[in-house]
Amino acid sequence: MNTEDPLDRVLCTWHARADTPPDFREEIWRRIAVENPPSRASRVAWWVLQPKRAFLMAAAVVAVAAAWGLTHPAGSEVSPHDAYVISVSPFDPHTLQPLRP
Predict the structure, then answer these.
(1) pLDDT of 76 above 70
(2) What are the sequence ranges of the domains in the chain?
(3) Which has the closest alpha carbon to 87: 77, 99, 79, 75?
(4) Which of 20, 73, 98, 99 could lock 24 by a disulfide, CB 3.0 to 4.6 Å apart?
(5) Radius of gyration of the chain (CA)
(6) Sign, CA torsion 23/26/31/34
(7) Sorting pLDDT into bands at 50, 70 and 90, what band is 21?
(8) How far is it, in rounded angstroms, from Cα 46 to Cα 31?
(9) CA–centroid distance for 31 within its chain
């Protein structure tokens, strides 16, 4: 199946001409400089995601979560066992009513 195709001969003799304009690089940098400035969201994301700030924000979130957990204890009056029995027992009068602590 070695058939000679005339297109193969033409493609072998063809050479690409890579002529670039003399101010090509300057034009590219000019286009980059003219692009739209970053959006407010991307600037805020860049500011927040700096390593020091990200660490401080993570520490602040952990501190707030710990403070919330200490000031708002779970305090459920129904034990997990009783809650399960109430939820699956068809004879318990609380089955159709939602549990309230």
Answers:
(1) no
(2) 40-101
(3) 99
(4) 20
(5) 35
(6) negative
(7) confident
(8) 23
(9) 29
**Cβ–Cβ under 8 Å, residues 99 and 89:** no
By three-state DSSP, how is residue 81 classified?
Answer: helix
Q: Between 99 and 3, where is the model more confident?
A: 3
**Are the C-beta atoms of residues 86 and 94 closer than 8 Å to each other?**
yes
0.85 cut: is pTM over it? no
62, 54 in Cβ contact below 8 A? no
How far is it, in rounded angstroms, from Cα 85 to Cα 99?
12
Q: Following DSSP, what letter does each residue of 16-58 receive, concatenated?
A: ------TTHHHHHHHHHHHSPPPPHHHHHHHHHTSHHHHHHHH
Euclidean distance between CA atoms 71 and 61, whole angstroms: 15
Structural tokens at position 100:
């309230």
DSSP state for residue 93 in the 8-state scheme: T
